[in-house]
Amino acid sequence: GSKKCYQLENEKLFEEFVDLCKKQTGEHPEVVPFLCNKRQRARPTFLASAELRNVLSRVLSRAQARPTKLYVYINELCTLLKAHSTKRKVPLTP
Amino acid sequence: DPVNVDDDEDEDDPENRIAKKMLLEEIQANITTD
C-alpha cells in the first residue's frame, strides 16, 4: 500500500541524508547518532507519512545545494522528529 | 577585468552557526540527563 511505500522511501531518503551528514559533521561525531536516535523515537505512523517524505526530500535537496546550511536542516529534521516522538520525558515526582 | 568573488562567503553562515549551537547544546543536555 501507499503507507508501506512511503515508509521505504522515507528510509531511503533518511539514509541519504545521514550519509551526507556523516561526511560533513566529522568534527562533531555525536550529531549523526543523535539524529538516528530521534528517528527511532518517532511514531511508526509518522515514519510512514507523506509529511516526512516531503520534509526529507526538501532538507536533502537543500543540504546538497547549500552544505553551508547543513545544521539548519539537521535542526529542522530533529525538531520535527521530536514533535512526533513516542517517548516523552516525564518530570520526576518529588 | 572580472573581479574574483570569494565562493566561501557562506562558510560562516550566521543561521547555520546558530542552528549548530542549538543542536550541540541539545545533544549535550541529553547526554547530561541520560
Structural summary, described in words:
Chain A is mainly alpha-helical. Helices cover about 70% and strands about 0% of the residues of chain A. Chain A is built from five helices and no strands. In chain A, helix 1 runs parallel beside helix 4. Chain B is rod-shaped. At the A-B interface, helix 5 of A face helix 1 of B.
Low-confidence runs of chain B: 5-10
Question: Largest sheet of chain A, described in full?
Answer: none
Give the % helix of chain B: 55-70%
Strands of chain A, total number:
0
Summarize this entry quickly.
With 94 residues, chain A is mostly helical. Chain A is built from five helices and no strands.
Strand-helix topology:
The complex is a heterodimer of chains A (94) and B (34).
Chain A: H1 2-24, H2 31-40, H3 44-47, H4 50-65, H5 70-83
Helix pairs in contact in A: 1-4, 4-5
Chain B: H1 14-33
Question: Main attributes?
Answer:
heterodimer; A: 94 residues; mainly alpha; 5 helices; globular; B: 34 residues; 59% helix; rod-shaped
